[in-house]
Structures are given as C-alpha cells and as structure tokens.
Amino acid sequence: MKIGIFDSGLGGLIILRDIVKKLPQYDYIYLGDNARTPYGNRSQEVIYKFTQQAVDFLFKQGCELIIIACNTASAKALRKIQQEWLPKNYPERRVLGVIRPVVEEAVKVAKKKIGVIGTKGTIASEAYIKEIQKLNPRLEVIQKATPLLVSLVEEGWQKHDVAKKILRIYLKSLKAAKIDTLILGCTHYPILYKEIQGMTGKRAKVLNSGEIVADSLSDYLKRHSEIENKLDKNSKCQFLVTDISEHYEKLGRDWFGPEIKFEKINLD
Ligand code: DGL
After folding, report:
1. How many CA atoms lie within 13 A of 195 on its CB side?
2. How far apart are CA 189 and CA 206, in angstroms?
C-alpha cells in the first residue's frame, strides 16, 4: 500500500519534496488536479466534489493513507470527507490534512499573535482560526488573503521587484499588528519563505509548512503501526496529473526535481 498526496495542482510537490526527504523509504502517489486548479476561489460544494473524486481515485490506486496537501481543500472539504464520506466508503483508511499539524506547531512557538496567509477560500473558511482557538483560545489570530502569491510563484517571480511590492502590501497589516508567528497557509508559499521572512523581520517566526507536515506524518506513522506495517517500502514515487503541458513539466522539475515524470489521468 502507498501514501497518497493530493493537491489542487502542482504546489503540493513542494510539500511532497519535504515528506520524501524525511521519509524516503515509502512509496508515494502524488495526484495534482492541475486541469481544474486553482481551487482557491471556488465554492465549498465544488471543492468538496473535486477533493472527494481525488481521494476516491487515490484509494482505488492502492493508497492506505492520503495527505491533502492543499490548504484550500483541507479547509473546505477535509472535515466532511473524514466524518461522512470515509466511514461509509473506506472505514479502514485514513485522510489527513495540513492545517492541524501546522497549527499544533504554531501554538507551541507563538507568544501572543499568529498571522495566517492563504487563498481567499482558506481565509474565508477561518479553518486556521478555529483550530488555533481549540488548542489555545488566548492566542490572537490575524488573517490575510494573499491570492496573487500563487501566480507569482508559478511565474517564477519570487525574486522580482514586483514580488517585494506585493508582499509589502499584503504583509502590512500583519506587521502592524505585531504578529510573532506566521503560518504560510498555502502549498506555494514556502517558495517565498526567504522573501517573507526578510519582510516580517526577526520578530515573527515564519513556519515552514512542508517540514512540519513531514515531521507530523513521521510521528503519525510511529504511533500507528497498524498503518505503517501495510506500507510498501520501495522508495518509489508516481506522479499523476489531470493535465500535462510544457509549463507544468517545468514547474514539476523546478519544485520536485529533474527526474519527475507525469502520467495523465481523468477525475471526472
Ligand atoms: N493548493 C492551493 C492551496 O494550498 C493553492 C492553489 C489553489 O488555489 O488551488 O490552498
């Protein structure tokens, strides 16, 4: 059995890279729904439908456990999948998201105020606020939707002057609020880690979501030997996408590595 990693597009490769670095022994299937990306501005109903199709597909490919690397899908579809769909369809298997592990780390390091940036969908869902308040209601959370950052990263413009200008505008309210911790609530944002940390300054610790998700998966597998025992250990990665083009192949090489080879599948 394999570990499935699902994302609305290719940004999840940035998270997968950290997972494979930490846990190279397992077999992974990455599924990127890049024909229908971005999910960030879509309704909950559509995000749920797309996510459920992807999860079903990955289970049929032999995944024992699926990580939803997409923050928007974790915010808007994960709970319903875990509580309603999974018990009816695959009661023995597991689907995990990226919000909970990052929030657990944030709550550990934060002093008073946590900033969260993400797509419009993630921010509107208030999923990070709800999770943080469950663990520590005394922490204040200041959010900001930063939708242009996905396009900037996909264009490879992280070092461009435009990136600095956009970040300055987006991060202004978080800096003014004197946040001490910042959550990068979107698959693509770790690519801008240095630029964001440079702008927030020493006062705010920027959390690296990829590393946190990888550490949390490692810990989860240690605690769940009944799942870990079923996992294949041939260090193989398969990359499934819903669209292939030169642009996507370049993103795959830049974000995961030169050896990446996509296979096209259909989710409809
Ligand atoms: N993967 C999405 C996320 O992490 C970003 C791209 C999209 O909007 O689909 O929220």
Report:
1. 22
2. 11
With a CB cutoff of 8 Å and minimum separation 6, the contacts of 223 are: none
Residue nearest to atom 2 of ligand 1 (CA): 70
Q: What is the pLDDT of residues 117-134, one digit of tens each?
A: 999 999 999 999 999 999
Ligand 1 geometric centre to CA of 41 (Å): 9
Ligand 1 centre and the CA of 87: distance in Å?
A: 26
| 2-97+211-264 placed in CATH 3.40.50.2300 | no
Mean pLDDT of 24-30: 98
Which architecture characterizes domain 100-209 according to CATH? 3-Layer(aba) Sandwich (3.40)
The string of pLDDT tens digits covering residues 75-132 is: 999 999 999 999 999 999 999 999 999 999 999 999 999 999 999 999 999 999 999 9
pTM: 0.95
Asked whether this chain's domains 2-97+211-264 and 100-209 adopt the same fold, the reply is yes
Query: Does any ligand 1 atom lie closer than 6 A to the CB of residue 39?
Result: yes
For residue 224, the CA-to-ligand 1 centroid distance in Å is 29
Q: How far apart (Å, rounded) are the C-alpha atoms in residues 209 and 263?
A: 27
Closest Cα to atom 8 of ligand 1 = 40
Any ligand 1 atom below 6 A from CB of 146:
no
From the CA of 12, give the closest atom in ligand 1: 1
Residues 6+ apart with CB under 8 A from 83: none
Domain residue limits, the chain: 2-97+211-264, 100-209
